[in-house]
Design brief:
Blueprint lengths: L1 H26 L3 E11 L1 H8 L3 E11 L4 E15 L3 E17 L10 E20 L17 E22 L2 E15 L9 E2 L3 E2 L5 E19 L1
Antiparallel strand pairs: 1-2, 1-10, 2-3, 3-4, 4-5, 5-6, 6-7, 7-10, 8-9
């Protein structure tokens, strides 16, 4: 009888230990940081350093509004000279983009990385200058002669939507490196007479059917504001 009491004592002790351990695990919650992340697109300053005919800067920012959704804002300016086969023109202006990202990556405990899809609305205000052009008279006996009108077109605007795919990796505490690709579609564009907006700040080169592509490489820092349970 005494042995039975001892056995029951150890079983009850073991059971209470398991329950206590489970309660502790349930009460210890994983905390996730919510705050403002601010950074720059490294493409702009690198291109400004390498290409003498390009100057620009883009500030990127996002704010975590729920576990998987982030509000995103990007703003910048561009001053670029473009020299193509038959035309040389300059583009100068600023732009603003706003939208959201959805993080589809399920982080392990202690990780804060992203693999996301996103949507942006963009608007740009800019000027274009037609520096020179060469009429395309291929197939004739005439020698093509360049024309230098130096015509400036002011107060131009464009609006577009972007579909974004990207990732962000936390390399140090609250410091992130990121990359993304965007597919853009113009929805409206104010163009000068007899000239097309071939390059729009923030949208990049305008291709057939008013489409475009963008790439960026960012470095950003998270400013924590609060922490929530995962």
């Amino acid at each position: 009888m005494k042995q039975q009491h001892i056995l029951l004592f150890f079983i009850s002790l073991l059971f209470s230990g398991v329950v206590t351990s489970q309660e502790v695990q349930d009460t210890v919650k994983v905390k996730e940081s919510y705050g403002i992340r601010i950074g720059v697109d490294l493409n702009r300053p690198i291109n400004s350093f390498i290409e003498s005919n390009t100057k620009g800067l883009e500030i990127v920012s996002d704010f975590r509004i729920s576990r998987n959704y982030y509000a995103a804002i990007e703003l910048g300016f561009l001053d670029k000279n473009t020299n193509e086969d038959y035309i040389n023109f300059s583009t100068k202006g600023s732009y603003f983009k706003a939208g959201f990202n959805y993080n589809a990556y399920e982080n392990w405990k202690g990780m804060n990385n992203e693999i996301y899809v996103g949507l942006r609305y963009g608007i740009s205000m800019f000027d274009q200058t037609l520096n020179s052009y060469t009429p395309n008279i291929e197939g004739t006996y005439f020698i093509p002669v360049g024309v230098e009108p130096n015509t400036k077109f002011n107060d131009l605007t464009a609006q577009w939507v972007e579909f974004v795919f990207g990732m962000k990796v936390e390399t140090l505490k609250n410091l992130f490196l990121g990359t993304s690709i965007s597919f853009n579609k113009l929805i409206s564009s104010k163009e000068p007479e007899n000239f097309k907006n071939l390059h729009v700040p923030g949208f990049n080169r305008v291709f057939l059917n008013n489409t475009g592509v963008g790439f960026n490489y960012t470095i950003s820092y998270l400013i924590p504001i609060l922490k929530k349970n995962k």
